[in-house]
Amino acid sequence: MLRPLIVDEKRYVYPHSAKLEANWISLDDVGKCMVAAMDRPDFEGSWLNIGGPQRLKPTEVAEALSRVLGHEIKYDPCTPKEFGDYLVEAFGDDVPAENRETMAARITAFY
Q1: pLDDT tens digits, residue range 58-69?
Q2: Is residue 103 assigned to a domain?
Q3: Cross-strand pairs, 55
């Protein structure tokens, strides 16, 4: 998610269909899973499908954000290309100019 779009523009922008459910998970919890997996040599080369306990549609994520933030956040679907561009922009100077186009294309391909 892109904080400025949520906080400043009150939009939850994501490239999912409004009907698609996903088991969202925080990046903190992803990190905990990664650290725990490092202590498990039997996991080497494995694919771990991790996710949160609840399947939510993007509109439900927007509703949850609205409750937490105390004002309406609207779900604003975007294309994978738009999302890739948004993410690369959000990374700012951490992504060198010469790598931005390639990184945005990889994000687009992921979605």
Answers
A1: 999 999 999 999
A2: yes
A3: 23
